[in-house]
Amino acid sequence: MGATAAVLERHLVMYRRLWRGSVFSSFVLPVLFLAGIGLGVGGYVGEIGGVGYLAWITPGVLASTAFQTAIGESTYSVMGDFKWVRSYHAMYAAPVRVGEMVAGRLVYILLRVVVAAAVFLGVTALFGALRSPWAPLSLAVVALVGLAAAAPVTAFAATVEHDSYFALLFRFVMIPSALFSGVFFPVEQLPGPARVLACLSPLWHGVELSRAATLGVFPAWPVWAHVACLLVWAAAGTAWAVSAFGRRLRD
Amino acid sequence: MQSLIHARGLVKRFGDFTAVDGIDLDVAPGEAFGFLGPNGAGKSSTMRMIGCVSMPSSGELRIFGMDPVRDGVRIRGRLGVCPQLDNLDPDLTVRENLTTYARYFGLSRAEARLRADELLDFAQLRDRAASQVEPLSGGMKRRLTIARAMVGDPALVLLDEPTTGLDPQARHLLWERLFQLRRRGVTLVLTTHYMDEAEQLCDRLVVMDGGRIVAEGSPRSLIAAHCTPEVVELRFAEEGDHAGKLAGVGRAEALPDRVLLYVDDGDDAVAEVHRRGLAPSGVLVRRSTLEDVFLQLTGRTLVE
Q1: In terms of CATH architecture, what is B5-219?
Q2: If one looks up domain B228-287 in CATH, what number appears?
Q3: pLDDT in tens, chain B (304 residues)
Q4: How far is A42 from chain B (nearest CA, A)?
Q5: Strands B156-160 and B187-192, bridge-based pairing
Q6: How confident is the model at residue B304, as a pLDDT?
Q7: Which chain B residues are closer than 8 Å to A8 by Cβ?
Q8: Is B106 on the interface with A (CB under 8 A)?
């Protein structure tokens, strides 16, 4: 696993150069969302499940930000590292295994997601939106959501030749997931088939667990079942990514 | 001594297309070995198999005595690869490109910094160390790529068309750097379609065409075996069958703009040309080069 750390380090060195561009989407935007929807819309909504709307959507926005950051960071940059920069080809000429490239990249995304979530959690604590001593556990949830989203998207990005696929991914997968996975309203509101789709999305499982942590309530399914669903996404996505990287680099 | 690269009947197929069609190779430690050939001859496919990123379809291949299919990572740890397309990280600085790459080879951060310093000197890029890669000239990027290939202190360096697209100054500086590596005992394996590059850098080379090795030897011995010592280039003001009147003088090859005469002694041949009443408007007597051998062996048809 030696080269995993080296791959992670390369991504961190790159990020040190490029971080300014991500500050708004990682740190500012989620807080604006919370303020705009939590306070603004929340003023009309009243309470859900015995808590104010702001406190209710906070864990959802937390998980959703992780989900969207993980997807966004796993699209253009993965394809670019194959197609334009060819940095994976450079790694593969050095003694780096395909599994180490994938692992180094996923750990980098985890760090990004968890650091952004920790800042967000601090801000929401000031809003008084955290109602349970379990709240810090939501960082572990967010890490799992990040992995469950980043792994399959990384694999997908390693297989495509054109970036227009990403626009489709954002429009038909990421945005619907963010809207209908229980972030802004309970999935019970959705018609039957849409609820099934929501249950397939890793984001819904993340939102349920995250909400359980910050509000100290029970999630919809047993905790282990939500965790298992996220782990399946993460494991299957990672396996797919390793195979996609290998096919792209070897002939 | 054990050969660093050993291949017998090496084949690479892509579907129906056979890129490398059963080649035998042995490269000894300290050698500078070249693959020469037109585009599509199978040079790069062979290099990719040696670099352990492409799996042989059949035949035997051993690098450092190891099997690239099983020991790819261990072999790659002792190789330096300079690919045809630069794959530097454009957003990183020159120095960061070296240090991040050194970490892939298991160097500690402190070792990586020291190594980067040495290699910045080697590549004559020290004053650009803090500059990003993107604005560098083509020659600087190539030197950086070669320096980066050296971070793991490789026993064998693979260079795929190292000077393609560079201006003459940049090429000469690069050759000089590669010559430095040779003097340190590093084994170089390179592909090129520049004859002067092969003559400058290679102790021994093979000419590939259509996936096969069609000739092998030192640059001098290839010229001796496949060409005459001298070539006379004749240009004529008026059109006509000039080559036909040169029978017996030497092998004559008529090109659209000139006639090439392959002979042992160029001055004797020129005298004979004049004796036969031919009046060329331009005469050039020169020594044969690898280019003559190359064109002789692989033909003049344009490969695109």
Answers
A1: 3-Layer(aba) Sandwich (3.40)
A2: 3.30.70
A3: 589 999 999 999 999 999 999 999 999 999 999 999 888 899 999 999 999 999 999 999 999 999 999 999 999 999 999 998 889 999 999 999 999 999 999 999 999 999 999 999 999 999 999 999 999 999 999 999 999 999 999 999 999 999 888 888 989 999 999 999 999 999 999 998 788 888 889 999 999 999 999 999 998 899 888 888 899 999 998 888 888 888 888 888 888 888 899 999 999 999 999 998 888 999 999 988 888 888 888 876 655 4
A4: 43
A5: parallel
A6: 47
A7: none
A8: yes
- Those residues with Cβ within 8 angstroms of residue B120's Cβ, 6 or more apart along the chain or in another chain: B94, B95, B98, B126, B129, B147
- Cβ <8 Å between B73 and A95: yes
Q: What b-and-e string marks burial along B252-274, b requiring 16 or more CB atoms within 10 Å of the CB? A: bbeeeebbbbbbeebeebbebbe
Closest CB from B74, B92, B152 relative to A13: B92
- Angstrom distance (rounded) from CA B267 to CA A206: 87
C-beta atoms of A91 and B51 within 8 A: no
Report helix, strand or coil for B121.
helix
**Could you tell me if the ipTM is greater than 0.95?**
no
Strand-pairing partners, residue B159, are: B82, B190
Q: Measure the CA–CA gap between A225 and A228, rounded to whole angstroms.
A: 5
Residue B5 backbone class (left: φ over 0; alpha: ψ -120 to 50; beta: rest):
beta
A87 touching B (Cβ < 8 Å): yes
Q: Which of A14, A86, A91 sits opposite B104 (nearest CB)?
A: A91
At B230 the three-state DSSP class reads strand
Q: What is the CA radius of gyration of chain B?
A: 23
Could you tell me the pTM of the whole model?
A: 0.91
Q: Does residue A3 belong to the interface with chain B, where contact is any CB pair within 8 Å?
A: yes
Q: Measure CA B192 to chain center.
A: 3
CB of A97 less than 8 A from some CB of B: yes
Tokens standing for A181? 């996975």
Domain extents in chain B: 5-219, 228-287
Taking a C-beta distance cutoff of 8 angstroms, is the pair B97, B88 a contact?
A: yes
Yes or no, beta carbons of A93 and B103 under 8 Å apart: no
* Residue B101 contacts A where some CB pair is shorter than 8 Å: yes
Report the candidate in A85, A116, A119 with the shortest Cα–Cα distance to residue A22.
A116
Tell me whether A187 touches chain B (CB under 8 Å). no
